[in-house]
Design goal:
Layout (H helix, E strand, L loop, with lengths): L7 E5 L3 H11 L3 E4 L5 E4 L3 E6 L16 E4 L3 H10 L9 E2 L3 E7 L5 E7 L3
Parallel strand pairs: 1-4, 5-8
Antiparallel strand pairs: 2-3, 3-4, 6-7, 7-8
Length: 120
């Protein structure tokens, strides 16, 4: 099998209207699709779309617990911007020796991370 690229990440949510507003207005992501399958651009090569399991007759089974890493130019600056918009982070920004990471969640508890690698 040859994978050409990542097309999109699915994020389960319980309230499409609330989550759409949060990803668009709070995170500031560019919304590229509306309606039952809201989609947002993640940089140059991927998209994130909101998935309400009720739209396909399923139930919300819980949030993603492994964080989606959002690469930003500067983690501390992006964190300060999001905190000013009401986002609460889980602990302090940490330095792994290779990158900076700051963990937070969306309104349904899906794990997200601001990330910037600074070492090879």
């Amino acid at each position: 099998m040859i994978v050409e690229r990542l097309d999109f990440l699915s994020v389960p949510v319980t309230d499409l209207e609330r989550s759409t507003a949060w990803y668009r207005d709070t995170l500031g992501l560019e919304q590229t699709e509306e309606g039952a399958w809201p989609e947002f651009r993640l940089g140059e090569n991927a998209f994130l779309y909101l998935f309400d399991p009720a739209n396909v007759g399923e139930e919300f089974r819980g949030a993603h617990s492994a964080p989606i890493a959002l690469r930003v130019p500067n983690v501390e600056e992006a964190r300060a911007e999001l905190e000013a918009r009401g986002v609460e982070f889980h602990g302090e920004t940490f330095d792994t020796g290779v990158c900076h990471m700051a963990l937070f969640s969306d309104p349904d508890g899906n794990a997200l991370m601001l990330h910037r690698r600074y070492a090879p």
